[in-house]
């Protein structure tokens, strides 16, 4: 069976060592490198219906399959941690967080409740993984894992939800009144998740990272320029 190791500190990646004929597959755009002996194929994993469901829920229509022998490495696109999951129970995952999985794991998608999908943002258009084996996700920033007891409920700012075990009860609520929604800076909606089960959170969102970079980007009146130390060049 394939062997895996997580390398790096704040910008981690997954190193996959494949024997002859062994396979893994990853989300499109996350391949870092591969041995010349590794065969690469772009496939429509799970058939047309599964591929279409992934596409409309924010995932990728095609996946990248690697067949050994040799090494193939997969990396995320933001600073963060790689999450290794020994899958046994179905898992619902934020669609853009999938990196790579063993061939024994099935990759599908699940439409969230209509209100959750439209109000909660991309974090509730969920990929669904079933089967047994190793699954690797990418958590933006740091990772927090919570094991909720039966009846225990938490509220997660919508964009910080990474994954939760399928079968857990979840829904959406606003962060408060209009004043809180507009001026709290915490987004507009919470995802309410109730135990029992395991929930994975990431501490950074794509929107937060983009917002932090705005002061260092050219303004609309400086197209094509680059701002360095407050001076446009």
Low-confidence stretches: 114-123, 179-184, 220-233
* CATH superfamily annotation: Mitochondrial biogenesis AIM24
Number of domains: 1
Give the tally of β-strands: 21
* Molecular shape: globular
First CA to last CA: what distance?
Answer: 53 Å
Q: Do you know the CATH architecture?
A: 4-Layer Sandwich
Q: What percent strand?
A: over 45%
Helix content: 10-25%
Number of helices: 4
Alpha-beta content class: mainly beta
Cα-atom radius of gyration: 19 Å
Indicate the mean pLDDT: 80
Quaternary structure annotation: single chain
**What pattern of helices and strands is seen along the backbone?**
EEEEEHEEEEEEHEEEEEEHEEHEE
Please state how the strands of the largest beta sheet are arranged side by side. 5-6-3-10-13-8
Structure report:
The chain has a single domain, classed as Mitochondrial biogenesis AIM24 (Double-stranded beta-helix). It is mostly beta strands and 233 residues long. The protein is globular. The C terminus is likely disordered. The chain is built from 4 helices and 21 strands. The strands form 5 sheets. Strands 5-6-3-10-13-8 form a 6-stranded antiparallel beta sheet, with no helix packed on it. It has a 6-stranded antiparallel beta sheet with strand order 11-12-9-16-19-14. β1 and β2 form a beta hairpin.
């Amino acid at each position: 069976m394939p062997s895996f190791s997580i390398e790096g500190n704040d910008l981690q990646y997954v190193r996959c060592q494949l024997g002859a004929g062994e396979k893994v597959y990853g989300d499109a755009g996350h391949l870092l490198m591969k041995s010349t002996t590794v065969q690469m194929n772009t496939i429509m994993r799970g058939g047309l219906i599964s591929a279409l469901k992934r596409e409309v829920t924010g995932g990728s229509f095609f996946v990248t399959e690697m067949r050994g022998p040799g090494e193939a490495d997969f990396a995320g696109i933001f600073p963060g941690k790689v999450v290794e999951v020994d899958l046994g129970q179905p898992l619902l995952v934020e669609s853009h967080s999938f990196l790579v999985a063993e061939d024994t794991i099935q990759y599908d998608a699940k439409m969230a409740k209509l209100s959750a999908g439209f109000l909660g943002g991309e974090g509730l258009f969920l990929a669904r993984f079933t089967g047994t084996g190793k699954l690797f996700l990418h958590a933006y920033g740091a990772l927090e894992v919570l094991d909720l007891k039966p009846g225990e409920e938490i509220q997660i700012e919508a964009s910080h939800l990474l994954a939760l075990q399928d079968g857990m009860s979840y829904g959406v609520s606003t962060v408060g009144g209009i004043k809180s929604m507009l001026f709290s800076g915490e987004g507009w909606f919470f995802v309410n998740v109730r135990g029992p089960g395991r929930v994975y959170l990431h501490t950074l969102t794509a929107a937060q990272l983009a917002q932090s970079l705005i002061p260092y980007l050219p303004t609309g009146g400086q197209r094509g320029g680059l701002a360095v130390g407050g001076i446009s060049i």
